[in-house]
Write a structure and sequence with these properties.
Length: about 325
């Protein structure tokens, strides 16, 4: 009888090569992935990257929106004008102030109501629909509704102050009243989006965790404080950064309801860019202001990302 030679076991290099190539997609799969992604990439380049590049180029010229062409080359002088313009920094402060006024309400109140609704035995669907419904209403309709309610002497909100023996602020003639009006409108209008994010996160928490806590004698408020809120911290962080970026980009409700008034005391930076670009026809200057504000938003986003990554590394 002749002995059959067994194949030699693979060497360490061969094993590592097989392991490295096992998770890699084949060339046809890679090509198919790029084909499926092509429509998105085309739209992304055309409507996101393209406008940014065009805006950056226009900001270097003395472009006007009433004359064809990009105008004459001015270099960085538009940026110098933006950075030394008091009106620009005032509008930046108005956007920041709006963010400071609305973010606490739109982060904490939806969390509170989402937790309370999740504890209801019945009617959860109704409350979820009721809280989310205003978010799908167009901004123009919302501003028109609140303009009627802010009307002196006949408005619902104006009369509500009188029911409690208080004097209603001048919602359209004073700066403090205007901020109160736009903050109240924004909280009512956009409350539902964050509420839904919290609701979805709460549904991901296993019921077994609550059952175990109940067996250990934990009451409802103890469960909320020791289980629900800690497990919602990643969602709270997500809602916070999304709300900050959304508030910094405010435009619709202030422009439609107040037109930045009274006396531009509530005009946000995006309305300032709109006014300089389409009212005074300074397209190059408006593009430079847009680039500066774009950098501010990127810095805020990157800063928040680095903070979150450091906290995650510390907790790991």
């Amino acid at each position: 009888m002749t002995a059959t030679a067994l194949p030699a076991p693979p060497s360490g290099a061969e094993v590592s090569d097989r392991a490295a190539t096992a998770g890699k997609p084949s060339r046809p799969e890679n090509r198919a992935g790029w084909l499926f992604a092509t429509p998105f990439l085309v739209l992304y380049l055309a409507f996101l990257i393209g406008p940014v590049v065009i805006g950056l180029l226009i900001s270097l010229f003395n472009t006007t929106t009433v004359r064809a062409g990009v105008g004459s080359w001015v270099g960085l002088s538009n940026y110098a004008d933006v950075l030394t313009n008091a009106d620009f920094w005032a509008s930046m402060w108005h956007s920041a102030l709006f963010t400071l006024l609305t973010t606490p309400f739109l982060v904490l109140l939806p969390l509170l109501f989402a937790v309370l609704v999740s504890r209801l035995a019945r009617g959860q669907t109704f409350y979820r629909l009721a809280f989310f419904a205003p978010y799908v209403v167009p901004s123009a309709a919302v501003c028109l509704i609140f303009a009627f309610m802010y009307t002196p002497q006949t408005g619902l909100i104006t009369n509500a102050f009188g029911w409690f023996g208080l004097t209603a602020p001048d919602f359209f003639g004073s700066t403090s009243g205007a901020w109160f009006a736009v903050v109240l409108l924004t909280v009512w209008w956009t409350f539902g989006f964050n509420f839904i994010l919290y609701t979805a996160a709460i549904q991901e928490i296993s019921e077994e965790v609550y059952e175990a806590a109940l067996l250990d004698g934990a009451g409802p408020w103890q469960q909320i404080r020791m289980i629900t809120v800690p497990l919602l911290r990643p969602t709270i962080g997500l809602v916070l950064i999304l709300q900050v970026l959304s508030s910094l980009k405010v435009f619709d409700q202030i422009y439609i309801l107040l037109a930045g008034g009274p006396n531009y005391s509530t005009r946000p930076v995006i309305q300032y860019i709109f006014d300089t670009g389409f009212s005074t026809y300074r397209g190059g200057y408006a593009a430079a202001a847009t680039m500066v504000y774009f950098v501010v938003l990127v810095v805020v986003s990157v800063g928040w990302f680095l903070i979150r990554r450091r906290n995650n590394a510390a907790n790991a």
